[in-house]
Amino acid sequence: MLIMRLATAPMYLGFVALGIAIVLGQTVFPAWFVVFTPIVTSFFGLVWMHVPQPARCVLFGGGWSNLVFTIMFAAMLFFLMTTGS
Q1: What is the 3-state secondary structure (H, E, C) of 37-79?
Q2: 3-state class of 85 per DSSP?
Q3: CB neighbours of 36 closer than 8 A, spacing ≥ 6?
Q4: What distance in Å separates the CA atoms of residue 19 and residue 10, rounded to the nearest whole number?
Q5: Is 17 exposed, middle or buried (0-12, 13-18, 19+ CB in 10 A)?
Q6: Sign of the dihedral defined by the CA atoms of residues 13, 65, 39, 36, in that order
Q7: What is d(CA 10, CA 84) in angstroms, rounded to the nearest whole number?
Q8: For residue 29, with 0-12 CB atoms within 10 Å meaning exposed, 13-18 middle and 19 or more buried, which class applies?
Q9: What percentage of residues in the chain have a pLDDT greater than 90?
Q10: What is the dihedral angle through the alpha carbons of 74, 36, 18, 84, rounded to the nearest 10 degrees?
Q11: How far is residue 30's CA from residue 53's CA, in Å, rounded to a whole number?
Q12: CA 28/CA 18 separation, integer angstroms
């Protein structure tokens, strides 16, 4: 359990750093783009707690973190392709 916490702490610090960089304008993304970062999209997991089975089992069986990153990277790709940045 300790090793898992040691591994995830830098990841969450990176999420916070990414969110701060986006909000402060240090990236090519506009400030509102912070809603697509894992900081915000991870909270949608609370909504998934009310999804009936078997979808809940699939999402929380490792699928939810994959979906969070898919949302973020797809939004980044879409934004960069449409703005030409």
Answers
A1: CHHHHHHHHHHHCCCCCCHHHHHHHHHHHHHHHHHHHHHHHHH
A2: coil
A3: 71, 72, 75, 76
A4: 14
A5: exposed
A6: positive
A7: 31
A8: buried
A9: 34
A10: 50
A11: 37
A12: 12
**Which of these, 47, 48, 16, lies nearest to 34 by C-alpha position?**
16
- Local structure of residue 33 (DSSP, 8 states): G
Mean pLDDT of 65-69: 80
User: Nearest Cα to 79, choosing from 34, 28, 40, 43?
Assistant: 28
Amino acid, res. 21: A
pLDDT digits (tens, 9 = 90+) for 5-18: 787 788 889 889 99
pLDDT value, residue 33 = 92
Name the one residue in this structure whose structure tokens are 């979808």. 55
